[in-house]
Amino acid sequence: MLEPYVRPGIDDRPDLDKALSPEDKAAVARLAIKNRRRPPEASADQPEAQAVRLAASSTATAVAAAASVDAPAPDLSSAYLDMRDPMVAANGEKPSAAKVSRLNWGFFAASILVGAPWVALNAVALPNAVARLFHYDTTELQVTINPVTGRPFPVATELAMPLAVLVIVGVVAAALLTPLVSALSDRTRTPFGRRTPWMVAGGLLCALITLILGQDTSLVVMCFFWALMQFAYAMLSAPLASAISERVPDKFRPRIERWHGIGVMLAQALGVFVGAFGVMFTSYSPFIYTAILFAVSGIASVLVLPREPSSTELPRQRFDSSQVLDQLRPPKSAPAFARVFAARACMMTGVGMTSVFLWYLVRFWVYGKAVQFTSAPLTIPAGFLICAMAAATLIGAALASWSAAPISEAIEARGIRTATIVAAACLTYAVGLALAWGLGVWSTGTARENGMILFALISGFAFGIYDALGLELVMDALPDPRNAGHDLGVYALANSAGLALAAIIGAILVNAFAHSFGYYLLFPAGIVMVLLAGIVTLIGAEKIEEIKE
């Protein structure tokens, strides 16, 4: 009987499952290539995400001006540094033209929806709630006239310290909880993506806590829920900043970040409008409006944006608390970075002198004397004035956004140091403070209101230029481009440190001179800190030049 033909190398191959021993199989398995998905970069290590978060966390509307200057964060994962397609986002998506447009307008709308209620809460609603705790929510107040000057003694000076305590609690809680939310969001694996569940839940939780903050409670209760509010708001803001870095391809990132900046500018003004008009009715009204906006913000943001890809297939990552604490550690042996950090902290302290206590300045300082001559609630003229200041700040920031890029090009062409212009912006901000102080202290009639509006216009422009051109100094001072994301996150803490210092110094000054100056001294204190920021900026620039050489 004929044997079937055996094809050499095909039919005579051995059965490896039977021919190989268990040791041989283990050796082959060690050589095999395992096709495992690489875990995405942590949001704390994304330079673009930290740059967006840094700009959006500023107390002034300068983020659009910063986006107009070509000072990108040193991102070593950029597609322009290797052979990857710049039309593909970091999460692997290649959006169509329609999706790119939707991303652009989606992040623009999300920045407004997320930012406006937060500004309303911080600028008007919460300070007015603290005033209500001390029974200042009345239509008439008894004012004592100083027989020497003929002016009323400053009223409501005892409100400065409770508000400062609330601000410090919020700053510390935000510094600790925002990195925690970022780390937890990075490890979220759901069919709806990593960021979407956090934004939706964060908006609803913010709405609930806002309604609680508006109740008649105590300062201790307000501090507890205000700290919890920092966690809830981080659930909204941190994933949004990370989404811009992950979902927007490098090709379209400058345009989308600029529109996001414009949205932040509008959110600052709209937030003040919401808080001011709400407080004209009752002290609880702004909390209702703010809660509605918070509830809508998370849901509307994820609906406007294209649907986020599922994250269920991402590799599991073990949570380590050291990764959260590491985001708070400053870089070692970085003197240039330390100087720009100190300059930013001084600048934010000077800005915070008026921004932290702005509602009290308008409500009790500008209209302190008018209490004797009217029975109408003073929240109405105070609300209109603070709205006018918000509009003036928006105009100033828009002018800065329009002129920042030409100024940057002009000083580069003429060989002028960027630090010189940044220091000049600090000086301009100090001039605005001096005008508001002078017109408020040594003038009568509407001069005090006009001084505040003029200050808002000048400060919006000055801080816009400072933020835009100062970003170039920050990028030059980063000690290691490979750790740019981490270092920018640490640099953002200068905003928090500045606000905390402003709250402490301002409260001490107001209470120490309650019967003579009170809120008057916030202006000269702000002038000193802003000028100090300019001096430190010039010193830091010299250190950067030494390192470059």
Automatic annotation (TrEMBL):
PROSITE patterns: MFS. Keywords: Membrane, Transmembrane, Transmembrane helix. Residues 1-21 are annotated as: Disordered. The keyword S-adenosyl-L-methionine does not apply. SUPFAM superfamilies: MFS general substrate transporter (SSF103473). The keyword Membrane applies. Residues 9-21 have a biased composition (Basic and acidic residues). Pfam families: MFS_1. It is a multi-pass membrane protein. This is MFS transporter.
